Write the structure tokens for this entry.
Amino acid sequence: MGIQRHRARLDQQSPARRVENLEAFEPCWLETYQYALLNPLNIVPADRSGLPCQPLKTPGIKVREHLLPQLLCLNALSGDQRKTLTTMVAEYCRRGTPFLSALLQSEATPAEIIGHFRFTLEQPRSGSKLRWWLRCYDPRVFRHLCWVLDELRMDRLLGPITAWAWPDLSGWWHRLPRGRALDPWQRMPTLSKHQWAVIDRVALLNATLDRLAMLAPEVRFSFEDYVWVDGLLAEARELGLTDAEDCRLYAEQAARFHPDIHDHPSLHQRLSEAIEQPGSYTQYCDDLSSQLLQAMARELEKST
């Protein structure tokens, strides 16, 4: 069974509307992009040995430099290094893990790019004295920032970067060109409470999307899908579900079977019991098979 269609809409000015879908990685991109981002936590240290990388340090982070995200200056690569890098990208893609977290186009110097990230990776948060780490270098986070951030904040996030490309787990790449030509050195406005709430759910959102992708591998998710599934997770929290797995199951049921599946009396009762009494929603739904949920969805279709 596929994924249900939904009512989610992107804002007309959303940066996600500027995103271009590319093909699989092309070696010539190492010539057309000036920089790359690497996440050392996803890479065997020996596989990036010798590459001209520099750590992206911030004022508040207390982590050893080799564990920080790394900026790779592509213009500094030798011919042999380009061939080795191309091989590594292909090998990691086959494993389902990107070697390059992002490719960046920019006329700025390496020092200027590093300086930009110095005050971008850490962000203030309303009501907190701490500065919070913004994992924009992670492609599974950046794809969501494209619809979470408004146009101004995204352009400030990009700063001197004129285009940002990133891979998905299938090996396909996507590219976001910068919008308005703003002062590239002006810092990003503080994120709103709502934006932080969505960012806090990104790990759970990705886990839910991964589960849905496993159940319906033929489906290519859109930004509207991301918005809709995140809304289901937020809805689950608002209803009173506190366990992450319960929220994931709630969203999965609506996404797979029917947007209003929880209005069905049988499921509504289980949901109410999970909220009002000790026990998890997942446990209350243990006896429900896909066939039973499909039957509930058909009943809802007939009643509307």
Remarks:
- The beta strands are 20-24, 35-38, 53-55, 70-73, 102-105, 122-124, 131-133, 163-167, 172-177.
- The two ends are 21 Å apart (CA to CA).
